[in-house]
Amino acid sequence: MRLEVALPVIIPLFFGALTLILWRWRLAQRITTVIGTGLMLLSALWLLSATWQDGILVMHMGNWHAPFGIVLVSDLLGAIMVVLAGISGFATAVYSLTAMTKRHEAFGYYPLLHLLLAGVNGAFLTGDIFNLYVWFEVMLVASFALLILGGERAQMEGAIKYVTLNLVSSALFLSAIGLLYGLTGTLNMADIADKLSYADNPGIITVIAMLFLVSFGIKAGAFPFFFWLPASYHTPQVAVSALFAALLTKVGVYALFRVFTLIFTQDVDYTHEILLWVAAATMLTGVLGAAAQFEFRRILSFHIISQIGYMIMGLALFTPLAIVGGVFYIMHHIIVKANLFLVSGLVYRLKGTYELKELGGMYRSHPMLAILFLIPALSLAGIPPLSGFFAKFILIRAGVEAEAWWIVGVALLVGLLTLYSMIKIWAEVFWKAQPEEYANRPVHGSAGSGVLYLTIGGMAALTVFIGLGAEPIYQIADAAAHQLLNPSLYIDAVLGER
Amino acid sequence: METLMAFTVGGLFAAAIYMMLRRSIVKLVIGLVLLSNAANLLLFTQAGLLRGAPPLVPEGAMQPAGIVADPLAQALILTAIVIGFGVLAFAVVLIHRAYEVVQADDMDQMKDTDT
């Protein structure tokens, strides 16, 4: 029985309840939220180091042993994701200290934040497919409420699309679970993988695999299911946007990695070929959509989609190096993307708009912010020595080794177009002079923006750290990929030696 | 019986998708209700349909006698129904608020956030 496996789920649930009790005391809510997310980050780091040392950790809930009870399993991929959730949760909590207004905090922002983090961590750690569904729903319900916090018209419109497509995805997920249960008679993921390896009807398994692909594809924002994402991600408060951008789609990507390395590996030629096409189309549509946009957060939203394509590409190539690249890409992406959204929030705070054409002159007035934007932006585009360069380098090298030339070409082209979009933001927001007619709009000013600078600077430092210290990060990703490609490690850890 | 259920589930899915493709947001929510019920029924049917075979272990025995119904699937559906109910309650409140803000019941009027 390993307590640390459950802690990253228990801590946010506990602090969520605590902030509910402190509903009327805003200051106390803020303090407990920062403490709570900080503790969650620490417990996640503990979990990662324990998983690194002792291999895959399993906790049998209520001491009902697998495959009958629900298990929490922490393999390296899950532990890495929990750490990333901790980092982005903590950064969001600190950022919210000044970014959130009373109007939003009064309607339960902090309890919802904790609930969202609990759902995300639960999804990363569970070893039971139905439990995964339940955690998805916990996360979704919290995200629904966070999305409409504030009640603007754009938020309502965005939320309708977001809610509808996510509910369709959940219904498909549930149907796929039902079919899988009918086929194997078990819900434990390790047990399912074990049973399916003896199955002799590959046709129905492939059908179920495709249902999972569609369901998780919607959640991950993969082509052609991504429409809800650019319609909704630019509408909520920017701290919420940043958290969504960092975590929610990545839960979908994580689920894809989990089921397509552990469970559905019977017909790799077919399923992973489809994944590869999905990856290429996702990359291209995302980056082309971004090229057509002239609103800060919409550009960033479209770039989430194109980056999801890179992660799925790592999964689809299905060679050891490609999986390493996919895992590395997720680590790099969560930190960089959250940071870019946080920067956009600070720009909005200083200038009062997200429209590129109304912005300008920020390099002259706020050179520090300009540098802090440039670090994640260039990292996203893959400029060495920042984190994005190594992430793309590993993936493209894997593509070359697998002789999948066309996907390598697409990945390189999309990298170039990403640079175009980032330079567009740089030129419009920071470099050009601000048009006269927009210069004197009432804004928040720079009061209290020290905390915001601190958060953005911390995340930028992490980006530089991943870039300069790529070797240890690579080794962690390598070990995670090793576990993913040897499902017997996972199965033996959960079910015990048979 | 399974065949009948299969057709019911298929019909529910079809009706749900038809309703969701309409322009009215109220019909959208009806579509979501049908969709979650279709998924629940599918889960129910997958576990196998048996009449009058409750999964009870007789006193003193270690396992139930004969073939019994699968209780796990029913636990799953119960969970799924509760979750679906909560989420749908949220969706209804959401469309009500959206209706108040946008002053229209028409998806085509809600294109501000599209590109």
- How do the helices and strands follow one another from N- to C-terminus of chain A? HHEEHHHHHHHHHHHHHHHHHHH
- Based on helices, strands and strand pairing, what is the structural class of chain A? mainly alpha
Beta-strand residue fraction of chain A: under 5%
* Rg calculated over all Cα atoms of chain A: 22 Å
Helix content of chain A: over 70%
Global mean pLDDT of chain B: 87
CATH architecture of chain B: Orthogonal Bundle
Main sheet summary of chain B: none
Number of DSSP strands of chain B?
0
- Order of strands, widest sheet of chain A: 1-2
Uncertain ranges of chain B: none
Rounded to an integer in angstroms, the radius of gyration calculated over CA atoms of chain B is 20 Å
Per DSSP, the total helix count of chain A is 21
Continuous helix count of chain B: 3
Structure classification of chain B: mainly alpha
| Assembly status | heterodimer
Question: Strand count, sense and closure of the main sheet of chain A?
Answer: 2 strands, antiparallel
Strand and helix order of chain B: HHH
Low-confidence regions of chain A: none
Distance between the termini of chain B: 48 Å
What is the number of domains of chain A? Answer: 1
Membrane topology (chain A): Multi-pass membrane protein
Protein name (chain A): Multicomponent Na+:H+ antiporter subunit D
Keywords (chain A): Cell membrane, Membrane, Transmembrane, Transmembrane helix
Domain NADH:quinone oxidoreductase/Mrp antiporter transmembrane (chain A): 128-416
Short description:
Chain A has 498 residues and is mostly helical.
Write the layout of secondary structure elements.
The complex is a heterodimer of chains A (498) and B (115).
Chain A: H1 7-21, H2 26-54, E1 57-60, E2 71-74, H3 76-99, H4 102-105, H5 109-125, H6 129-147, H7 153-184, H8 189-196, H9 202-220, H10 228-232, H11 238-263, H12 268-291, H13 296-317, H14 320-351, H15 362-365, H16 367-381, H17 387-401, H18 405-431, H19 449-468, H20 470-485, H21 487-495
Helix pairs in contact in A: 1-2, 1-5, 2-3, 3-5, 3-11, 3-14, 3-19, 5-6, 6-7, 6-11, 7-9, 8-21, 9-11, 11-13, 11-14, 12-13, 12-18, 13-14, 13-17, 13-18, 14-16, 14-17, 14-19, 14-20, 16-18, 16-19, 17-18, 17-19
Chain B: H1 2-20, H2 25-46, H3 71-102
